């Protein structure tokens, strides 16, 4: 797999890091830290909260400047747009997974409430099997299936069933022996 | 109490606590960790640090944060560390697939031996060499760490300790990755992330007024995200790229045979001992890692074999059992020695050491650093007792490894057949679940996956990930030490150059950058 390590991409990386570091140095740090580099507290000089992050940023500026100026040898370049697509893909998959894990259980309960005129509350039922596994198992199966498809360029029903089983086994592994451990999203609802 | 009494108390400590089926829990945990580590190492695509990362939050959830939890938790992690190195040789020998990166050189001779029908001999040689290297390394650790810590405590004051951390970070930046600039970028980023939400002012610095990051990012999310999730995502990209280029993976018919006689073992010692020495020296230096140790051990063995090879014996690269032994002894010798900087200086040298430090800092009972081995004028130093308890568990793990490690290793060969398309997503889900088990918050998962993508970005741009994580762990320690040093020297702005030792350490840091820059430029 081609990495973004060519002369051109190293220069681009250096410029990107330099821009971020300058933004942090001149915008983020001054606006978000109240103390100076060195402060006078109780008639003694002490190091302020600004010094350490400033030193870290100066290190990044120097190193990224050196990356821009370096004369490294060229290697194959992966296109920048394909890199962005990969990150976009992973972000979408993670977002959907976390949304399914977080909202599927409560959504199911609200559907039950609507269809049966019951007044159930997910929080009160989150320790009841199989409701406590619902969001986790469906979200987990989705995550495994989509990522496996990403690696293999294909996905059979049998494999989805296997992933369902694996996710269920992981849920049991964490839930059955350990009373205090909660599966996602049951600690948040 | 003197050091001898602390050693005795340390040995007693491993027998303390509850027992399961008559076996003390601490002992059971280290043995369990060892077997689990062999299982992980034998699975291509998984490595010891991955298993340690997944196990740590689960172990903390089970045992809690009290000092009594330290030995079972760290014992289990030490077991994984030892077992994974050994297990990595299994797929390398049987399937030409290194289970861990440092087992790559093992494939050069191990797999040709399998093709010749000598797989069992290769596995036995790998086991013999690996456990020998590990044992030698542990002995060096037990002998050196206390004395190094006592030396540091006696001769290094706050300015020198600040300079020592700076030197370590510089060294790690220089030796890891493709360029020093990228290593320094990683260090800078790690320090900056560590400083978010920390500080001494009432307002948590750099938190952008967001309550969620007022206390900084969850440490498990940053470390596991960048190290493990990033690695898993990168492995997925590699697998996707391989699938597109090569299609499906071929199945291999396996024939496990061949014997390793006592005479063979004795003759292998001439390769194992120098390799173990190389691995121990490399392991004691922060940041270099077992892959280089394996490479140097193999090269050294190859030179020796070239000079002494008898007629009819295979050369290195053509199925020489000495090649397997040289590599395995060197990479296994790293695991004990890399605890020297951890225990005596509080500085992690590789990914496995990061998780050990993380465990020690999360659980009460042992704060790694020079004070661990301080002999008190009266009473006991409970940290030293814990440290010797850990040493005792390591020796015990080695004994178990000598006795049954070889058999377990052969049993685990089945793991090499698990497809990566199933394994990698499963590791991702288990990591997500174990972080949630510890943090109980979806916010922690968002941080975990965010830092996972950040880790992937670093891998794609060849910015080394380990300096980032080590700088993140050492960031607040460095700032705290520097603040104290500044105050103790009467607000001297040149406190890092206030003594000959600190000047020497700082000059060494500059020199390391210059030398490595010059060397890379020359290449």
General description of the model:
The complex is a heterodimer of chains A (189) and B (523). Chain A has 189 residues and is mainly alpha-helical. Chain A folds into two domains: 7-69; 81-175, no CATH class. Helices cover 67% and strands 4% of the residues of chain A. A two-stranded antiparallel sheet of chain A has the order 1-2. In chain A, a hairpin with a 2-residue loop joins strand 1 (38-41) and strand 2 (44-47). In chain A, helix 1 runs antiparallel to helix 2 (51-69), helix 3 packs antiparallel against helix 5 (131-152) and helix 5 packs across helix 6 (157-175). Chain A is extended and about 65 Å long. The two termini of chain A are 41 Å apart. The model of chain A has no long low-confidence stretch (mean pLDDT 86). In chain B, 72% of the residues lie in helices and 1% in strands. Chain B has one domain. The model of chain B is unreliable at 249-253 (pLDDT under 50). Chain B has helices at residues 3-13, 25-41, 48-63, 70-87, 89-95, 104-115, 119-155, 158-175, 180-195, 219-246, 262-284, 290-308, 321-337, 339-345, 351-362, 382-411, 420-439, 442-460, 465-488, 500-522; strands spanning 19-20, 23-24. Chain B is mainly α and 523 residues long. Chain B has a two-stranded antiparallel sheet with strand order 1-2. The relative contact order of chain B is 0.19. In chain B, strand 1 and strand 2 form a beta hairpin. In chain B, helix 4 (70-87) packs antiparallel against helix 13 and helix 9 (180-195) crosses helix 19. Chains A and B meet through helix 1, strand 2, helix 2, helix 3 and helix 5 of A and helix 3, helix 9, helix 10, helix 17 and helix 18 of B.
Low-confidence stretches of chain A: none
**Stretches of chain B where pLDDT falls below 50 for ≥5 residues?**
249-253
Count of DSSP E strands of chain A?
2
Q: For this entry, what is the oligomeric state of its chains?
A: heterodimer
Biggest sheet character of chain B: 2 strands, antiparallel
SSE arrangement of chain A, N to C: HEEHHHHH
Distance between the termini of chain B: 54 Å
Q: Largest beta sheet of chain B: what is the strand line-up?
A: 1-2
